[in-house]
Write a structure and sequence with these properties.
The structure is a homodimer of 450-residue chains. In chain A, the strands form four sheets. A seven-stranded mixed β-sheet of chain A has the order 1-4-5-15-10-11-14. Chain A has a four-stranded parallel β-sheet with strand order 8-7-6-9, with helices on both faces. Chain A has a two-stranded antiparallel sheet with strand order 2-3. With 450 residues, chain A is of the alpha/beta class. Chain A has a domain of 256 residues: Rossmann fold, CATH 3.40.50. In chain A, a hairpin with an 8-residue loop joins strand 12 and strand 13. The longest helix of chain A has 21 residues. In chain A, helix 4 packs across helix 16. Chains A, B: Belongs to the TrpB family. Chains A, B: The beta subunit is responsible for the synthesis of L-tryptophan from indole and L-serine. Chains A, B: This is Tryptophan synthase beta chain. Chains A, B: InterPro entries: Trp_synth_b-like, Trp_synth_b_CS, Trp_synth_beta, Trp_synth_beta/beta-like, TrpB-like_PALP, TrpB-like_PALP_sf.
């Protein structure tokens, strides 16, 4: 049986697909966090290069990918599409399971897909350093790699819980020449403030974003870079879904259901957005399911409302599903999924009913990840494994019904830097978290009122 | 510029290439460690399956690869050949540098190429468990993966210095369902004996092999499995070089010089052996250079003589380059290169002058690895990086001479589990070792006298 569908490097897409051009309901504009009036391009120039601001605000359907960016993407792209033949056999399912594996990138995840163009545009506009935050470390690694390839410096604020549990992530960033700090850090005013108020905090993406934004805003040669949520990030990730469509053409199958993990939103939207026109124009009966942790169930339990993108209230106010900008999720092992909000583009499509969401406990996620590793070989990142569990459930259901569904898993990265989490699972030390309804209620009471 | 040369999974070789058929000087037979008389097939049956014994003794040029083995190899093979365009640019060299990357396997190195067939043949002959040793952990990971895919149990004796410095390696083996013990362990008589005599020993591959052989020989349902040195291991690795020849055909280049790291010998011979007939029959002017650490310089400083394969003198006595079977190399960061001997097939070709060798200090190796990571993206395993340093030197020399040489690096694996070693390098804590001539002299005085 053919199990690997490869594309030649010439087939890396030449354009990014902008789903904003095809949205049934237009996006509401982002707001200036100070005035709560629509954000202007100038507002953003303190921390972003002009080319990315233009992409952020664009509603053009197709946007050219610079040739210099494609050259670097060739280092690992196109990524392979796999038929999960061994997993299917273990599950005794008539379903066909496919997965596209982004862990072949040097940083081990899909994150370089946007890190590379972001570093490129900043370099082009004369910026010397990028500041960013990272949850699990996937994004920090990716930006470290990208900045070093374009000769920029890089400062990464890494959420404390991950900084402590994933020591090798910061070692990797160091190999690529970046500086990695535990957040909250003593490098920024906001970091020092939080350390004083909450000395034992596990940190959060919201806090780390505030630190990186403050760093960028207070240094002329420095810009800020974000690995999820923003429109231009999701735009860059659409090379995934475009490749995937070509690869599905090679299989002669078409997915019935697509699963991808979802934190702030980058891998999942990148994979599914290019299928949105099929659903809208060709009326394809395709389910797209965003998979999130029960400890931070933004799409399944959050409110669709305007909220700050960060904890300090320095980042733009955006219309999204949110659990409130000062909600700090428990320190689960899928650190990359601990964000209080979700990308506006994705939130909008969920609100319009085109995309679904589901939430999972970490124990069941690691159980699924282990079965995957023992059949397909690859040890998935805990984040990615959130997409495996519901795919396995779907396949087991097909065993009952006899349906030969085509199930797709977006495998966003490997778990080589997450093995202490697997140890915790194997030692029976993983804790499952109930949705902290009361905390979220308190947090949602503090939403801005534009 | 085209930088990635991919083959379809159907192009995975259907036969292994046995260099024994083309050796200018025939191999001397392995000896029974008790009697020092030529080893018989029966001698080996206590610890190996019949199919592998047959391959071990075969002089057939081509040996069929079972279809079930090829099916599993498809999970990551064929591996990509890269043009190192960014590295060339950084070196301002007219040379062309290529590397074939085996780190795309789920275990992160070339080792599954033989682990898969070994597990397969043992499963076919009714064996329930495999015992093995591992240096850096690459081989232990690979066999853990292979045994779990074929439903076998696995016990790994991991050299203590690596066990302590690479904690995530054992976590990975555990994900794949294997048991990993620090060697010398208290599980075997030999291990207990060493622990009593040398409580602070960093361990060695020779000791760990003795433990695994003792475990296998004393349990009926258990066989022993080795990741380098033996003829059948090198045989299985020749899929690498066969793929590489097809890939070089795609580039329209042909290598002038090939570099590969060499411990006991598996990745390097697997990559270069299929080029031996070009050299012998077509008189190709091709240099093949085995790269080893100065701390364990078997090919560059050892004796070509009969010696025990392990420290206890339980493994077969083989004709090879050796530093003496009780030589314990310093605990360098390239744990996979700390073996006192070298594969008989490889040793024979080195002795006949067809293959060269060079030795490197670990600091210069990590410096080269860091330049590689910052240009090509991939963080190499410390072992693999031994091949990068002399390739860079060769390319720099071409800058002086203006030669457009074609330089090949065998990149055997990634360094995701070796990041504490990179930290040691970045912290300036790496120690360079002078060749311990006196120790080796003492050790060589104890060679068996057949």
């Amino acid at each position: 049986m053919k199990i690997k569908y490869l594309l030649d490097e010439e087939e890396i897409p030449k354009k990014w697909y902008n789903v904003a051009a095809d949205m049934p309901t237009p996006l509401k504009p982002p707001l200036n966090p100070g005035t709560l009036k629509p954000l202007t391009a100038q507002d953003m120039e303190a921390i972003f290069p002009k080319a990315l601001i233009q992409q952020e605000m664009s509603t053009e359907r197709w946007i050219d990918i610079p040739e210099e960016v494609r050259e670097i993407l060739k280092l690992w792209r196109p990524t392979p599409l796999y038929r999960a033949a061994s997993l299917e056999k273990a599950l005794k399912t008539p379903a066909k399971i496919y997965y596209k594996y982004e862990g072949v990138s040097p940083a081990g995840s899909h994150k370089p897909n946007t890190a590379i163009p972001q570093a490129y545009y900043n370099m082009k506009e004369g910026i010397e350093r990028l500041a960013t935050e990272t949850g699990a470390g996937q994004w920090g690694s990716a930006l470290s790699l990208a900045t070093c390839l374009f000769g920029l410096q890089c400062t990464v604020y890494m959420v404390r819980s991950s900084f402590d549990s994933k020591p090798y992530r910061k070692s990797a960033m160091r190999v690529w020449g970046a500086e990695c700090l535990s957040s909250p850090s003593d490098r920024t005013n906001f970091g020092r403030q939080i350390r004083e108020k909450m000395p034992d905090t596990p940190g959060s993406l919201g806090i780390a974003i505030s630190e990186a934004v403050e760093d960028a805003a207070s240094h002329d040669n420095t810009n800020y870079s974000l690995g999820s949520v923003l429109n231009h990030v999701l735009l860059h990730q659409t090379i995934e879904g475009q490749e995937l469509k070509k690869q599905f053409d090679m299989t002669e199958d078409y997915p019935d259901v697509m699963f991808g993990c979802c934190g702030g939103g980058s891998n999942f939207p990148g994979m599914v957005f290019p299928f949105i026109p099929d659903k809208l124009k060709d009326k394809k009966d395709l389910r797209m399911v965003a998979c999130e942790p029960t400890a931070c169930p933004t799409l399944t339990e959050g409110l669709f409302a305007y909220d700050y993108g960060d904890t300090a209230g320095m980042a733009p106010v955006i219309m999204m599903y949110t659990l409130g900008h000062d909600f700090i999720p428990p320190g689960i092992h899928a650190g990359g999924l601990r964000y209080h909000g979700d990308a506006p583009l994705l939130s909008n499509l969920v609100h319009d009913g085109l995309i679904e969401a589901t939430a999972l406990q970490q124990t069941e996620v690691f159980e699924a990840a282990t079965l995957f590793a023992r059949t397909e070989g690859i040890i998935p990142a805990p984040e990615s494994a959130h997409a495996i569990k519901p795919a396995i459930d779907e396949a087991l259901n097909c065993r009952k019904t006899g349906e030969e569904k085509v199930i797709f898993i977006s495998l966003s990265g490997h778990g080589h830097f997450d093995l202490s989490s697997y140890d915790a699972y194997n030692d029976g030390k993983l804790v499952d978290y109930v949705y902290p309804a009361e905390l979220v209620k308190q947090s949602l009471a503090k939403l801005p009122k534009p």
